[in-house]
Amino acid sequence: MGTYLGSSGKLAKQLKWANEQQARLAVLYGAEEQAAGEVTVRDMHSGEQVRVPLAEAARHAREALG
Question: pLDDT digit string (tens) for 32-45?
Answer without folding.
Answer: 999 999 999 999 99
